[in-house]
């Protein structure tokens, strides 16, 4: 006899729990939690990509050093789509071999628009686009943008091999054939002397 009211109260409890449970469910799938789940998922995906990509990067054979001035048209060939996969990028009139940064500038990379291109304007204006101009003299950039281009140039000099100058239309390429040194910025050094012994 005594159990009857108990069962009723249990029933009514579970009934009154139902909306509470719903509340909890809606709390769990609140927009904030969904956003957090999405961010965690994205970060895990990035970590996964980093591991898988770095292993494929190491498969790349080191390419012979390239030392050459180029026109914008010549530079275009080096977007990473040719068999050797070499990628070059020009910044502030200098061409850099960014093949070791292929995952950034190579096909499918986040900065692929810079591969085989003059990236100066894009870097200056913080936009991943490259101009289709035959030669971009950057003369319309303001002083802050020019400062930014110079900082990027310094960063590229530190990280990547210098290939040569980006030639203006009609400009003659430098002949680098005598230059055997690794130190491309100081032609005054004498590697031939070292080799003589
Ligand atoms: C929300 C937007 C962006 C995020 C979250 C982002 C993130 C990053 C990160 C994490 C790196 C370093 C990667 C590494 O060293 O492993 C990087 C490098 C870089 N980013 Fe961005 N970036 C953004 C936008 C841009 C834009 C708009 C530009 C174009 C001007 C840009 C140009 C570069 C360049 C040139 C590098 C250097 C790659 C190298 O080391 O050669 N980024 N970015």
TrEMBL record:
Domain Cytochrome b5 heme-binding: 70-167
Region (Disordered): 165-197
Coiled coil segments of this chain: none
TM spans (from-to): 28-48
Keywords: Membrane, Transmembrane, Transmembrane helix
Highest rank taxon of the organism: Eukaryota
Similarity-based family: Belongs to the cytochrome b5 family. MAPR subfamily.
Name of the protein this chain belongs to: Cytochrome b5 heme-binding domain-containing protein
Organism: Chilo suppressalis
